[in-house]
Known about the structure:
It is a single chain. By secondary structure, the protein is of the alpha/beta class. The chain has 12 helices and 13 strands. It has a 7-stranded mixed beta sheet, sandwiched between helices. It has a 4-stranded antiparallel beta sheet with strand order 9-10-13-12, covered by helices on one side. Strand 6 (163-167), helix 7 (182-188) and strand 7 form a beta-alpha-beta unit. The longest helix has 24 residues, at 246-269.
Amino acid sequence: xxxxxxxxxxxxxxxxxxxxxxxxxxxxxxxxxxxxxxxxxxxxxxxxxxxxxxxxxxxxxxxxxxxxxxxxxxxxxxxxxxxxxxxxxxxxxxxxxxxxxxxxxxxxxxxxxxxxxxxxxxxxxxxxxxxxxxxxxxxxxxxxxxxxxxxxxxxxxxxxxxxxxxxxxxxxxxxxxxxxxxxxxxxxxxxxxxxxxxxxxxxxxxxxxxxxxxxxxxxxxxxxxxxxxxxxxxxxxxxxxxxxxxxxxxxxxxxxxxxxxxxxxxxxxxxxxxxxxxxxxxxxxxxxxxxxxxxxxxxxxxxxxxxxxxxxxxxxxxxxxxxxxxxxxxxxxxxxxxxxxxxxxxxxxxx
Length: 351
C-alpha cells in the first residue's frame, strides 16, 4: 500500500496554529549571546516570574521541562513500586507512560457517555495505595470540562494520602470557566497540584515551559527530585516575553476559539457527533470504522489524532486547515447510526 503523502496541515498534537509572536522571537535572539554559559542550577528566577504572574508564593511553584516534565518529576517524588495511579481512558498519552516509568499500577477508568471523566467510577478505584489521581480539566482528548463544584465534590472522596493532579494545560482557552484563584484552591486542598503550560496558549511548545502550583511541602518534594540545570536561558527569555505579550496572546486565543466553534458547528451540520469543547481542539466520536475519514484526510494532507474504536481529536488550525478538515469529513460521509451529539455542555459543565 502506498504511503500517505506528507501532511500539509499538522492538527494532530494540539499545537498553536500561529508562529511565536515577534516579541518572543526577538527575546530569544537576544538570549543567544551567552549560550556557552550554564543556566542557573535551580530555576529560581523563572519560579519568581511565574509566582508574580499567577499571584502565588514562589515556594508554591515548580518549573520543569514542559508540563509533562513537571508531572514526571511528581511521579518520581511520590510514587513507589506497587502504588497505583488513577486516570481516565483515554487521557493525555504521557500518564500511562509515567505509570510504567514509575512502576506504578495504572488504573484507567473509561470516560462517561458525555465524554467527561466518570468521577463516580474513578472514586471507586481509589484505595490506600493510590498516590496520584489525574484529572485533565479541560479534558484531553475530548475538550470537555467539569465545574469547580463538580470537581470539589470529587476531591472530597480522594484520600489525603493521594495527590490530585489537576492538569490545566488548556485552561487559557476555557474562557468563562469559573473557579477560585490558585492560592485559595491550594489553601483549601493541600493535596492539590495544579499543572499548566505555555505550550498551547502562548504558542511556544518547542521551548518546553511547564509549571505546577502546590502547597509548599508538595512543591519542595517535587523540586528535590528534579535534575539540576533543567531549565535554560532561552526558556527564561521566552517566558518573560510571552507573559509580557498577554494582550496579543488573548487576541489569538479568541480567534482560535471562534474557529473552533465554527468548525464544530459545521461538523455537526455534516452529521458527526462532536463534543462541546473549551480547548483548542475538537473530539469527534467515531466508535466504529474510522478508515473512510482517515483516507479522506490523508488525501487532503490533514494530520489528526485517531483513537481506534473511540474517536478523532482535531486541533484547531488556521481557516484553510479547518476547511480541509471539513472537506475530508464531507467526503467520508456521515457515519452510520452516528450517536447524537450534545448541543450544550452537561448541567455541571462550565458555561
